[in-house]
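Async update (no meeting this week)

Hi team, since we skipped the sync, here's where things stand on the single-chain job. The sequence we agreed to prioritize is pasted below, unchanged from the tracker. I ran it this morning and attached the output directly underneath so nobody has to dig for it. Comments welcome in thread, and please keep replies under the output.
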Amino acid sequence: MSMWVTGANGFIGRHLVHELTGGGHVVHGVGHGALDPADARALGLQTWINGEVDAANLSALAAAHGLPSHVFHLAGGSSVGLSIERPFEDFSRTVASTARLLEWLRSFAPKSRLIVVSSAAVYGADHAGPISESAALVPMSPYGHHKLMMEQLCRSYVQSFGLCCMVVRLFSVYGPHLRKQLLWDICSRLRNEQRTLNLGGTGAEIRDWTDVRDVVRLLARVAEEAWQDDFGVINGGSGRGVSVAGIADGLIGHWGSNTSVQFSGVARPGDPASLLADNGRVLDMNFDWHIPLERGLADYVEWFRGQTRA
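Output:
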């Protein structure tokens, strides 16, 4: 099958391309980032278009390779902090790109299956314990609002134009090649031999941590499943919560450091106290998370040390 990945040059996108090509699929990508043909082939992409997710680039892919059986839509904003600093840019990357993709699918490829990667940020704050897909959606950052707008656009095109779409709300994805956010920040400070890590928040914030290698297995499984409805939402989480302080302690332990951690106690803008998935729908798919957190943290530290030595 021919599968397209928007945002294929991003953190999750690169892992997803590897997973799909390993399953025997032909994968083409569009998004931002310069990749020469050799680099694209090494990544697993038969074709890479460096540019916007728009009608011109999507039509160019279709003209060269035919229509896709599946489209994985990963292009969009990827940071709460950046969405607060540059909200219109985040809107354009997330909402406008989705609108352009949906309009192209409506016009030229209405039978293609669309798998859209969203975020648990759509749930917002004030959720205690596991959050079901039917929970109230009260995002507290531009990032979360834009992901919700993206979902609503998808639902609209399914209802009005007969597209088929599955939304996967990811929680806290980490793993090799992640060069931002908490794990990267902590390891960068450990590399610099800081004796004390001063971090924002309280440290008690609960997150549902999932290794990217498991996440892309889940996305591929969603594409393969028989969909009961033309539109659906799945929590892409494990149902296991670990505090930010627990992650920091785990990284320090795998690093072999005596560094201590202090938290400011000040909640960060757009940062809920708890985001934990009710993973019942994933369990119904008989999907297993293969990589436990301890192994995932150890692998991340090993990767970080290797790439910083290179």
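Quick observations from my side:
The longest helix spans residues 87-108.
Residues 214 and 289 are 6 Å apart (CA to CA).
Reply here if anything looks off.
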